[in-house]
C-alpha cells in the first residue's frame, strides 16, 4: 500500500518535472529567437530539473522491472536457479544503490554545511543530493521487493 502511494507521488512529480522542463525550454526558445531575450538561467534550471527527473524515475523503473537485463543463458537453467540468480542480482543492485544513497547523503550534509548553491541562480544543491539519496533507497527497496514477490 505504501509502495503504491510512493509510486503515485513519484509519477506525479516526474510529470511535473517534465512539464517544467518543457516550459523552460519553450520560454527560452521563444525568448531567444523571437524576442532576443533568452530566459536567464535556463541552462542551469534544465540541468537541475533533468537531474531531479532521473532520480525521481529511478525507483519507478526498478518497480516496473524496466532496467536493462542480459539473460542469454538464464532461460536454459532450471527455474529454482533462475529465481536464485534473480534474487542475487537484486541484492547486488540493492547494495550498490544503498552505497550510492550513502554517498549522496554525505554529499548532502557537506553541501548543507558549506551552503553550496548553483552558479547562476543560487539554488541550494543539498536538496538535490537528498532527493538522489532517497530515490536510490526507494529503488533498492522496490527492486528487492519486486524480485522477492516475482514468481
UniProtKB/TrEMBL annotation:
Keywords from the named record: Cell inner membrane, Cell membrane, Membrane, Transmembrane, Transmembrane helix, Transport
Domain Tripartite ATP-independent periplasmic transporters DctQ component as annotated: residue spans: 21-144
Subunit structure: The complex comprises the extracytoplasmic solute receptor protein and the two transmembrane proteins.
Annotated protein name in UniProt: TRAP transporter small permease protein
Family: Belongs to the TRAP transporter small permease family.
Cell compartments where the protein resides: Cell inner membrane
Function summary: Part of the tripartite ATP-independent periplasmic (TRAP) transport system.
UniProt membrane topology term: Multi-pass membrane protein
UniProt entry tagged with the keyword Cell inner membrane: yes
One matching Pfam family: DctQ
Main location: membrane
Native species: Salipiger mangrovisoli
Keyword DNA repair: no
Chain ranges passing through the membrane: 42-62, 83-105, 125-145
Annotated PANTHER family: 2,3-DIKETO-L-GULONATE TRAP TRANSPORTER SMALL PERMEASE PROTEIN YIAM, TRAP TRANSPORTER SMALL PERMEASE PROTEIN
InterPro entries for the chain: DctQ, TRAP_DctQ
